What does this fold into?
Amino acid sequence: GLNYRLTDVADSLSLNQLRKLNKFVNDRNKIAKKYEKLLNKKYLIVPKIRNNTQSSFHLYVIKLKNEFNHLHEKLFNFLRKNNLNVNLHYIPVHLHPYYRKIGFKSGMFKNAEKHAKTSISIPIYPSLKNTQIIKISKLINNFFIKNVKK
It folds into this structure.
């Protein structure tokens, strides 16, 4: 038998974090609105924020528009070199080793593969400062200004 019950310490920490949940979600939504305002939609698709709704914004995923897909890896490396903790999300399930072994191949789920090749998660967390949001947005916008041929 396995015991999956929380320890008293883990339970106490969880309850404390749950009390902060609404603030965390509100802070993330404010950050997302700032990103939406600051990031250049000429190059990117950003998450849509509908009126009277909220997202947990566990991640803030920017997606390169089709004509700029070739810059995906370069943008990712540029942001990492500038000490931004960006990530790629997610490797399509059918491309993981287990699924490849049972016969799944590249090209079988083109939309999932395209999403993986064009998306980058940028920092979003409740304590992200306005100056950091502006810096991140400027870095991304300036990257495109410097790398898109006119």
